[in-house]
Amino acid sequence: MYIKSLEYYDADSEWQLLSLELNQPLTLLVGASGVGKTQILHSLLTLQQIANGRAFSGIQWKIAFDVDKNRAYTWEGKFENQSISLLKDKIVFPEPTVELPELTCEKLTLNDSDIFVRNGEETLFKSRLTIKLTSHQSMLKLITEDDVSLANQDFSKIRLSGEKFSFCPDGNREFISISTAEFEKYNSLEKVKESKKSAGAKLFLAYQNVKEAFEWIKQDFLAVFPHVEDLKVELIQPFNFADEIFPVVYIKEKGVTHWIGAGKISSGMLRTLMFIIEIHLCADGSVILIDEFENSLGVNCIDTVTDFLTNHERDLQFIITTHHPYIINHIPSKYWKLVTRQAGKVTTRDASEFNLGNSKHEAFIQLMNLDEYNEGVAV
Fold first, then answer.
1. Is the pLDDT of residue 294 over 60?
2. Minimal CA–CA distance to 60: which of 73, 46, 70?
3. What is the pLDDT of residue 114?
4. Percentage of residues in the chain with pLDDT exceeding 70?
5. What is the CA radius of gyration of the chain?
6. Average pLDDT of the residues in 309-323
7. Of 45, 79, 141, 324, whose CB is crowded by the most CB atoms within 10 A?
8. Burial group, residue 179, by CB count within 10 angstroms (0-12, 13-18, 19+)
9. Residue 286's pLDDT is what?
């Protein structure tokens, strides 16, 4: 999947994203706090849920994306608004019996030709009337025809970085199991990439079945942390989990006798490892969303991890938010999108619109001095 543009409106919050054009495999959303950078990522996750059959009151959208070089899709739609009433300090929630919001319109086009069009009670599929379908779910979910299924399947490739990233049950960290029946199932790099497992589970599957891929990940990790000598993944079977086993990552530091388990590894090291795993093991065509890229990363990690994101050779798209000057200065300005907001309307603009300097540092200094960057939100 490659997302080319996005328009989005949430009637409940009166939040509107005017057209966001995504013309690079890496997009760095920059701007003041509160302008809507994180909300842009959330809007994509909401569309992923709508494609999976969920209904959301008051959501209206239009998204253009490519599945491959020969398939350019546009998907748009609108849910009716069933807003929650606010009475003084009391929130009045709808009764449980209230029906889900209905899709009042929806359309999917492929290479500028309509695949389906829904308007009120009438639904056309490839210019022919269809049987009556539920109005509470997207036709992207309801229709299994190949052209529609391909578009639907691509939405599963949107990943929020760090989601379900886990390695072990110790140290109170979230963990995720692997059934013993799955070991042989994922016996190639492509099968590991296409699995919907967590980063930790994928790392174990590579460690177990695709040694070369695990070695790539290990060497990249050791390059960021030269004091680390080795990396491995082992399985444990905690008490009361008789039928499940769990992958646990360990590091071996130079000059230290014992292996260190994930529960005692720093969050910055684990987050760095997560980025490396995703770059190597996520599915081809994945769209990876990273909110506040700088979280948990020290200066010793940021340079190298940023290089991984900008210099990889895989078919991936990254959409990242940050307001960390060091990161903005390190990523070329051609990847920047300056986000500003006036009341509920969010606008994104290319750095080129501001005639910033030719050198990376000069462009960074000029960006930092822009009123649009420092003020961000206007009433």
1. yes
2. 46
3. 94
4. 80
5. 23
6. 86
7. 79
8. exposed
9. 92
User: CA-CA distance, 73 to 354, in Å (whole number)?
Assistant: 31
Q: What is the pLDDT of residue 164?
A: 44
Confidence grade of residue 215 (pLDDT, cut at 50, 70, 90) = very high
- If pLDDT is split at 50, 70 and 90, which confidence band does 174 have? very low
Q: Which of 93-102, 270-279, 290-299, 319-328 is modeled with the greatest confidence?
A: 270-279
Tens digits of residue pLDDT in 340-357: 888 889 999 888 776 665
The tokens describing 153, both together, are 């399947």
Under a CB-based contact definition with an 8 Å cutoff, are residues 233 and 203 in contact? yes
Which distant-in-sequence residues (6+ apart) come within 8 Å of 191 by Cβ? 185
What average pLDDT does the structure give for the chain? 82
d(CA 37, CA 149): 30
Tokens 């209230």, located at residue = 98
Exposure pattern of 48-63 as b/e (b: 16+ CB <10 Å)? bebbeebbbbbbbbbb
Task: Report yes or no: 158 and 183 within 8 Å, Cβ to Cβ.
Answer: no
Cα–Cα distance, 162 to 159 (Å, whole number): 9
Of 141, 7, 137, the residue nearest 63 (C-alpha): 7
Structure tokens at 188: 């190639």
